[in-house]
User: What shape does this take?
Amino acid sequence: MNCLRPALSRTLRYTPRQLHTSARAFEGKKWHGLTNILADDNPPPVQVRTITPQGIQLADGLILPSACIFLEGEVFLWDVPQRLWAGWTNEHFQVFDLVAPKPEILLLGTGTRIAQPPPSIRTYLNGLGIQVDAMDTRNACSTYNLLAEEGRRVAAALLPLTPQAWPRSPVT
Assistant: This one.
């Protein structure tokens, strides 16, 4: 039992909560997480490593401090009102009208708490053939990683845990 204590104490130390990703299980005598046996050698182009009050950290280390959309393996900056659902219109989701093929599901990460979108927005997206699933941003990121690894046509519209506006540069 004494030989297990050092390993157990290393395991019980606090580490930031990691989201679902397809990391290698064993590399260079060091544990790196679980292996996704369903994933191929090429992981999805956009994967979330973790989410903190500073923003959403992607697998490549980039931190997105404000609202963003993951769509077709790309990350788009998303200019939305600071207050959730106050002043939001279908125009904020117009990007989904322009893409083909459309995602089959949109994971709507609404910050620290679940907040259902107004019926007009849900109706607009459903009219485009997109299922909307609202959840807190942490679960939306984890679910996005899982569905993207499965090869599903999934998109995510994510609000940060701490609302922040994207900085605007002056138009010249």
User: Anything to note?
Assistant: The chain has four helices and ten strands. The first strand starts at residue 26 and ends at 27. Helices lie at 5-12, 95-98, 119-127, 137-149. The longest helix spans residues 137-149.
